[in-house]
Amino acid sequence: MIQVAVLGYGTVGSGVVEVIEKNKEMVNKKAGEELNVKYILDLRDFPGDPYEDKVVHDFTRILEDDEVKIVCETMGGVGAAYRFTQQALSAGKSVCTSNKELVAAHGPELLALAKANTCNYLFEASVGGGIPIIRPLNYSLTAERIEEIAGILNGTTNYILSKMEKEGADFDSVLKEAQEKGYAERNPEADVEGYDACRKIAILSSLMTGKNVDYQKIYTEGITRITAEDFSYAKAMGRSIKLLAVSREAGERTLAMVAPCMISREHPLYMVNGVFNAVFVKGNMLGDSMYYGRGAGKLPTASAVVSDVIDCARHQGKVIMCFWDEEDAPLQGIDDTESRFFFRVRKDGEEKAKELFAGAECISLPEMPEECGVVTGKIKEKDFAARYEQLGNARVGTRIRVD
Amino acid sequence: MIQVAVLGYGTVGSGVVEVIEKNKEMVNKKAGEELNVKYILDLRDFPGDPYEDKVVHDFTRILEDDEVKIVCETMGGVGAAYRFTQQALSAGKSVCTSNKELVAAHGPELLALAKANTCNYLFEASVGGGIPIIRPLNYSLTAERIEEIAGILNGTTNYILSKMEKEGADFDSVLKEAQEKGYAERNPEADVEGYDACRKIAILSSLMTGKNVDYQKIYTEGITRITAEDFSYAKAMGRSIKLLAVSREAGERTLAMVAPCMISREHPLYMVNGVFNAVFVKGNMLGDSMYYGRGAGKLPTASAVVSDVIDCARHQGKVIMCFWDEEDAPLQGIDDTESRFFFRVRKDGEEKAKELFAGAECISLPEMPEECGVVTGKIKEKDFAARYEQLGNARVGTRIRVD
């Protein structure tokens, strides 16, 4: 029997206990041994909970119990979670986590610590919730040089954008509704400003390059400035607007960014709606592939944590392959990145826009006779910004990248 | 250095050599050791080929060379490929294959043989070409009870159906064009009759149940009777027609079948067009997920074979987990399966159809005034067949299942 401890009895933590219990037969078969949750660490008590007798308040109980071989860190944050993870790994206990902040901030250090103590630090649940993506990148696409990863990695923003698209509604009203329904946090910043997606693409970028991609260096733009009008143009162009988290080979460097993007109907990510997430991966041999599923939620995320627990159980005393060095990956700055852009301009600025962006396409919509939409060719971000600036007051709304 | 032999220097076999060479740095890093192709077995010679000196004609050269640890079987068929695989595994050499016929026909026996000789039999490339699906099922979705797998597993039929849909063309003309372009074989039976998809869903079903699903017992229907008119109805209903290979929990039994199906725009498989393949997986915790990519082609398939080679390299002397027992999985017969059906009927049969299928919906298209389309509710296959029969000469074309 393998003893497991769960840190944090919140949504994901309680899901982990539930998955291990509900799918007991399958889980134990795959683990090769029976798994048992021995401790649940939480500051609270849970009187009446079927597992209340497993709840402890002191991490040292877990740390000092040699029977505990695997720890699930489902607390979140980079404070106590970081300390407990370091201590567990130092004691040779494997750690499985859903904590993207911690993985993005200290991934390579914790991986090295696990390796030094012949145990494992696994984080399948930290990106894409229930979508298997970390393991496919690490174990399946091993014969590939990965050229690009593009993901819809945040369910809240995808829900909001899908609803704006479907209903022609504006951002504020959809956000409010999402908050009322519990799909968005009361403080929605981490989601709508793209910070959550930024942590996740930092992790995927690091696995893609084998080096460390610092999330603080990733250009990140949220969805708060996207309007119902932008969706009208997108629709007329056969496109949708998605918050994309991208990592791409750029010569010897890597471009990583998070920003809304108008993607075409032909792109596999076009059909990813509502709370679903997906990760598009382009390999130099494989070509395009995509991994799609529920990016969040109690049971999908918990299922991913438990798949890591099973992996740890099967690899006791062995270090599972993961290439993520502490060395920083050289990143391409946003200024030198080439993109295409969509923007809106008042009719009296149309001629100037055409001058500034030679070869740009213009789209006029009958319902908005006083303006038009412009789609540029590929242009460096800094050149676009300089020319766009020159349009001054003729600009309407924001600019959006086009794939 | 790990010595590798490639059996069969055809499309996939030469792709394997190419991937190992082109992505050398990545492949060796992931394998943890340098991989070297020592032998290529083929009946032919390849004068002028950069690897001509590696070509041998006698399998015993490979079998008796103790340096060869991993064999890639990219010959196809169940004759020599079967014998060579048995011999290699018996000698403790791991075998990686793209040969779906052999895996479907003798998978559990060969897995047991590998286990007995502490080596591995891996077959990621046998289903979905370059799409990682075997490894995700075996290593990632380990905490799940999988309730359903539905796949678009054959690129040729998906290409044909996509083209029929897009161009309003009929089956014969699109098949002919596909043959001219090399997308379909001169003898297209294995593809268009669903036999290829049947082998692949047999493999996935077996991994889903952990028991053996005999491909010969899988109800299989091809796409040869699908017409341009069927696509007109599908379009009017917001649906597409895909050749689906399905495996589904049915109480204590498993339903496995291959048949064309009208799927709705909301289904993740709806957008899988052309030569792309995808596998939809429903888990009891994870909910819906999907894996999408190139289902065939030299380099994608070869990349999957090489990912298996890397896995073997990292697990020398260890048996990689795979649950596929020789015991037959109990299958649900097609007769007792419930489906919804679409069919076409002459106007003079419409009333009778409505009587026979209470609650069915009727769709009339202006361009086909002499007939209508009917969509039934869920009904047992055998009951449907009996009632449909009663429509006699009023029936037009074939019937198609509806998801």
Describe the protein's architecture and organization.
2 copies of one chain form a homodimer. Chain A has 403 residues and is of the alpha/beta class. Chain A folds into 3 domains: 2-129 and 298-314, NAD(P)-binding Rossmann-like Domain (Rossmann fold, 3-Layer(aba) Sandwich); 134-294, Dihydrodipicolinate Reductase, domain 2 (2-Layer Sandwich); 337-402, Alpha-Beta Plaits (2-Layer Sandwich). Helix content of chain A is 36%, strand content 26%. Chain A is built from 14 helices and 17 strands. In chain A, the strands form 2 sheets. In chain A, strands 7, 8, 9, 10, 11, 12, 13, 14, 15, 16 and 17 form an 11-stranded mixed β-sheet that branches. In chain A, strands 3-2-1-4-5-6 form a 6-stranded parallel β-sheet, with helices on both faces. In chain A, helix 4 links the parallel strand 4 (68-73) and strand 5. The longest helix of chain A has 17 residues, at 100-116. Chain A is elongated, with a radius of gyration of 23 Å. The N and C termini of chain A lie far apart (51 Å). In chain A, 52% of the residues are buried. The model of chain A has no long low-confidence stretch (mean pLDDT 97). At the A-B interface, helix 1, helix 2, helix 6, strand 12 and helix 12 of A face helix 1, helix 2, helix 6, strand 12 and helix 12 of B. Strand 12 of chain A pairs antiparallel with strand 12 of chain B, so a sheet runs across the interface.
